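Training component of the fellowship. As part of building independent skills, the fellow (R.M.) carried out the full modelling exercise for a liganded target. The chosen ligand was adenosine-5'-diphosphate. The inputs are recorded below so that the supervisory panel can assess the work.
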Amino acid sequence: MSKPQAILVINAGSSSIKTKLYAADDLRVLDGQKIEITDEAGYDKAFADILDQMKRYDIVGVGHRVVHGGRDFNAPQVITPEVLEALEALVPLAPLHQPHNIRPVEQIARAYPNVPQVACFDTSFHRTMPRLNEIYAIPRALTDEGMIKYGFHGLSYEYISSVLPEVADETAAKGRVIVAHLGNGASMCAMKDGKSVATSMGFTPLDGLMMGTRSGSIDPGLPLHLIEQKGMAPGQVSKIFQKESGLKGVSGISSDMRVLLQSSDPAAKEAVDLFCLQAARQAASLVVDLGGLDALVFTAGIGENAPEIREKICAHLAHLGVNTESAPNSKNETAIHAPGSKVPVYVIPTDEGLMIARHTKALVLDKTPAPVVTPSRKL
Ligand code: ADP
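Fellow's submitted model of the complex:
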């Protein structure tokens, strides 16, 4: 019996590798696994598992989630030696993630040199942002060096943008939409006609909303104070804002929204309230970029599953005409706005893996023309 043709999607992070296999013809999910990694030996074992999994299928292409595509990669790329070199050159922009994303690319290239691999970037979707939404008020020389807002969660936003026309009417789907991706990492994207015009994450995924353990936007004087006045080492400061802040830092209990929602501790309530207020503020500020609002979409772990959080965020936005209805909201239904709400509000589960599978299929099987990579725009 011949093996089923499949596309393998790999999302490799620092603490786990997630794989999913999709049928090459209709992209239905055939198989998948999440392997936790605790050490180097754990990584080798995880990779051996992936190779075993690959043997059971006729792999026609491998799609990788790659966090950083820099300024130039505004679309997924078939990985050639030149592309791989470019991905490596981007490591300094995402030192915590990019090396983990690249490692399986190299290993699969050695084990299966003839299987095409595709890099799908978290940053690409935002390359449609206008220049004013890409630059910081810092010296021009630093901007020219690449210290700009790249934005992240692009594969999630691209997926939502692709399914929105099935869910919302045309005015909303083609109009001014804010998508709130609220998971362990959290960000928002303002879209017009399905394309990103502004986003809350910036040069790194630390910017914007408060998250599970990340601080989100803070006074840039704060890390300076810790270094200059309190004598902390950069590594300590990084740990504070990356791993010990956000929901975990404010609550002192957990980074997990479920735990906080169940807790009666006032510090847990404060963390949840701050999360909702910051999310609403971010959404309101994105309304400026859009010049109005035709739809609000919630997605990812918290956005898809936490009615209390959606309700609180929307209550802060009621003056903009955003009103939820408690019955559909409490059941995580697709449309959760009240009948009189000026702005429709939706809950749409995201699927970054499927987005990667679609791109990989398009590039390796359907042979869509290679996407045009715009040369670095002069900033
Ligand atoms: P990641 O960014 O790691 O992919 P997820 O999108 O899975 O994260 O989101 C994880 C977050 O979603 C956690 O804070 C978790 O508590 C929250 N979450 C998941 N299910 C629920 C739920 N039923 N109610 C509230 N929060 C939830």
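The panel noted the following from the submitted structure. The CA atoms of residues 177 and 191 lie 5 Å apart. The first strand starts at residue 5 and ends at 12.
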